[in-house]
Amino acid sequence: VGTADNRVKLTITNQNGEDVTSNYTFDNQFGTLEITKRPVTFTSGNGRWIYDGMYHDNPQLTANNLVPGHTYVVRNCANIRDVGTKENSFSLYIYNDSGHSKNVTANYEITTVFGTLEVTKRSITVTTLNNAWIYDGTAHIWDVCSVQNLVPEHSIQLVNCASITDVGQIPNRGEAKVTNPYENDADVTANYEIHYVYGTLKVNPRPIIVAVWDTEKVYDGTPLYGGEPYVPADSPYPLVEGHTLSATVNGSRTDVGVSNSSISKCQIFDGTRDVTFNYSIRTTGGKIRVLQASIL
Predict the structure, then answer these.
(1) Which residues is 235 bridged to in the sheet?
(2) Using CA atoms, how far apart are residues 54 and 44, in angstroms rounded to an integer?
(3) Which one of 52, 53, 64, 112 has the fewest beta carbons within 10 angstroms of its own beta carbon?
(4) Which residues, other chains included, contact 165 with Cβ-Cβ below 8 Å and sequence gap of 6+?
(5) What span, in angstroms and rounded, lies between the C-alpha atoms of 177 and 192?
(6) CB atoms inside a 10 Å sphere around CB 49
(7) CA distance 75 to 93
(8) Per-residue pLDDT tens digits for 89-136
């Protein structure tokens, strides 16, 4: 590409073919020779992938109007890894042959048409697992899950998990967070379309026994009542630490003999909050014994 004078060398001969050039004086006026850049269009292709944590590119081009025999080498081809779209941009060099003997890129007017690279979200199913506890007054979470179709090198954890304290059951809801441990635990959750299957969290009533202490006295003509309520050592579970027991004990005896005491109402409190519903209470009465008085 460029311009040059259209110089020529003249020889003048007569009718006999003899060179008579020296008999002439020339006033040369040269024309101009010009080669302009050759327009060529390079178009890059498209590419579409499901997210797999890898970089993807498509370096294949189509060329329109390239000089036959000329070749090109693609440089700086775009690539894509995370979910989204990107121009399939590139740069290139053009050579005069397949051996790349001479770079002739400057002789072309290059137009580029970029395709599109796209990565779509990877669909995964996260299943949170079940768990159950006996009521103990504390909040429970279960941040354990299984996952299908996760990129093998990635790690998953549940965050913002549901918690349960009182008796009952709730879905084990949580949010999956996916990280790449090979890149300082970079958060790659946005590259996934997450479907959840929720397990169940359950708290069962705390089984306890509430008994009544036996009472005993020597006959004095006044009633003897049942003793204080308590949770005995053979109860399946003790009261939760910090909880208090309140019970209505029935039964009394005045005369010599033995009667039974019983519990008609039993409540358990956490501070001022009634948490009786979190317990499965079995009651057992005590003995009321009035002994004979000695007459001296």
Answers:
(1) none
(2) 20
(3) 64
(4) 137, 138, 139, 140, 203
(5) 10
(6) 17
(7) 8
(8) 999 999 998 888 899 999 999 999 999 999 999 999 999 999 999 999
Residue 254 in tokens: 């005045």
Taking every pair of Cα atoms in the chain, the longest distance, rounded to a whole number of angstroms, is 185
3-state secondary structure 187-244: ECHHHEEEEEECCEEEEECEEEEEEECCEEEECCCCCEECCCEECCCCCCCCCCCCEE
Q: Which residues pair with 39 in a beta bridge?
A: 109
Strand pairing partners for 198?
Answer: none
Say if residues 120 and 189 touch (Cβ distance below 8 Å): no
Q: Which two tokens stand for residue 68?
A: 């036959």
Spatial separation of the C-alpha atoms in residues 169 and 175, rounded to whole Å: 19
Q: What is the mean pLDDT of residues 187-197?
A: 98
Identify the CA nearest to 50 among candidates 82, 78, 86.
82
CB of 268 closer than 8 Å to CB of 280: no
The count of C-alpha atoms lying within 13 angstroms of the C-alpha of 268, restricted to the half-sphere facing its C-beta, is 23
Q: Which residue do the tokens 């630490």 mark?
A: 241
CA dist., res. 130 & res. 144, Å (int): 9
